[in-house]
Specification:
Order of helices and strands: HEHEEEEEEHEEEE
Number of helices: 3
Shape: elongated
Structural class: alpha+beta
Strand order of the largest sheet: 1-2-5-6-7-8-9-10-11
Largest sheet: 9 strands, antiparallel
Number of strands: 11
Strand content: over 45%
Helix content: 10-25%
Radius of gyration: 19 Å
Distance between the termini: 44 Å
């Protein structure tokens, strides 16, 4: 249960981090990150280059998860987020203080779409042309993964953003002028 709640909080933080960049994160130097975390990242993702280390002010109190933006010392952080890149791929991994992988988020641009996604898009949006796409996958520590595709389609100067899951189910779309 603790993992589910923590994962939900971390996913919420990840989405908020774009709009409120440093409200719930603190950039760290590698020396400030626990050795167990640094070693785990090097072992889990040997081909990736580390872009930045962040600490997330999440703490456990009697089995509940709390966000504490008032943590004073790097030694008080229990959750660490590492941003990495490798040949057009971007990956964010979240670890606990003991070096256990809690969550990964992968982001790839212009990937080959699965057949189910391509078929669904062609059926739902005939006469629209694929302009670009991206793939996001969030995998929690328990191995469950959510795969999402964001496709930009173009038709006579109009653009539309379409979001699907890996099976081609259209989740939503947004028109753009």
């Amino acid at each position: 249960m603790k993992t589910v709640v923590l994962s939900a909080v971390l996913m919420g933080l990840a989405f908020q981090s774009n709009a409120q960049d440093m409200l719930f994160r603190a950039k760290l130097e590698v020396e400030e990150v626990p050795e167990l975390v640094v070693t785990a990242v090097e072992e889990d993702f040997p081909d990736f280059s580390i872009v930045e280390y962040n600490a997330i002010p999440v703490e456990y109190v009697e089995g509940d998860v709390y966000i504490n933006p008032n943590i004073d010392s790097n030694a008080d952080y229990d959750t660490f987020q590492i941003v990495m890149k490798e040949k057009g791929k971007e990956l964010t991994a979240t670890y606990d203080r003991d070096g256990n992988l809690v969550k990964t988020t992968e982001h790839f641009k212009n990937v080959a779409l699965p057949y189910a996604v391509s078929k669904s898009i062609a059926k739902e949006y005939p006469n629209w042309k694929l302009e670009k796409d991206s793939y996001d996958m969030v995998q929690l520590g328990n191995g469950k993964a959510k795969k999402r595709y964001r496709i930009v389609l173009e038709n006579h100067g109009k653009k539309i953003h379409v979001h699907t899951n890996a099976k081609g189910k259209i989740l939503n779309n947004h028109k753009k002028a």
